[in-house]
Amino acid sequence: MRQLLADGLREQVRRTALTKDRSALEHHLRNSIGRLRQERMVAFFADADGRLLSEEVLGEGPENGVLLSARSLFGRAMNLDARIVVLAHNHPSGSAEPSAEDIRTTRTLAKLAGQLGITLLDHFIVTDAAVTSCADRGHL
User: Fold this and answer.
1) Are 90 and 30 a contacting pair, CB within 8 Å?
2) Residue 53: alpha-carbon gap to chain centroid
3) Is residue 140 part of a domain?
4) Which of 55, 66, 86, 122: disulfide with 61, CB 3.0–4.6 Å?
C-alpha cells in the first residue's frame, strides 16, 4: 500500500510542471525523504517548461550532513539538457530550518547554475512534518 501511494505521488510530480504548483512535490518529498534517519540530497531536473526529466539521489550522509559535488550536479543537468533544477534534502533532526551551510551552499549553487544557463528554482529542507523553501526565504 505504501509503495502504491509513493508511486502515485511520484506520478503526480511527473505530470505537474515544477514551475506551476509545488504542493505535489512537497507532499512527495515529505513522504520519500522526510522520515529518513540519515540525510539524503535529491535533485529534480526539468526542461525549460518545468516538466520533470529526472529525479535523482545525489548523495547520502550521516544525520548532520551530506556532501554535494557541484560538478556532478551540473554535469548531470547538462547531460539531461535540463534548464531547471530543484534541490531538496532532509533534516533528520526534525527542524526544517536551513542551516548557515545550507544557505551558503544554495547561494553558491544558484550563482554557478546561472553561469551555465540553468535556473536553480529552489532548495527545499524537508522533515516529515514540514518543507521549507530557500527561495521563499530569499536565499536564492
Assistant:
1) no
2) 13
3) no
4) 66
Q: Look up residue 8 and give its three cell numbers.
A: 502515485
Q: Which long-range contacts (CB under 8 A, 24 or more apart) does 105-112 make?
A: 105/68, 106/134, 106/139, 106/140, 107/139, 107/140, 108/70, 109/68, 109/70, 109/73, 110/140, 112/70, 112/74
The model scores a pTM over 0.85: yes
In a domain, residue 118? The reply is yes
Domain count, the chain: 1
Give domain status of residue 88, yes or no: yes
Cell of 103: 544557505
59 neighbors 67 (Cβ within 8 angstroms): yes
Say if 138 falls within a structural domain: no
Domain with residue 67: its CATH number is 3.40.140.10
